[in-house]
Amino acid sequence: MFTAGLWARRYAFVVIFEALLALTIIFASLALIFASTLLQAVVTGGLVLLCAPVFWLLIRVMARLQVPRDAQRAQLATEADEADLAADGGE
Q1: pTM for the whole thing?
Q2: What does the domain layout of the chain look like in residue ranges?
Q3: Which is the most buried residue in 14, 54, 70, 81, by most CB within 10 A?
Q4: Greater model confidence, 5 or 90
């Protein structure tokens, strides 16, 4: 269900996934600070290096999801034009 929401580009699912990535990066960074072996440092550092670019790329996806689609954009433009005409007194 969650992957279907991401595939359908639902904003709420993308935000939730972004939050999970952020938590993963934060906890992996903290684990990296307290890593006592080389293996722990490599695994947690790799986790940060894998999650950080995905997190950054999803920011662009979220921005694109907030932009209205063409049909909605045309309808909003028409409504704005009608509102401007009504405000001007119908000139």
Answers
A1: 0.66
A2: 2-87
A3: 14
A4: 5
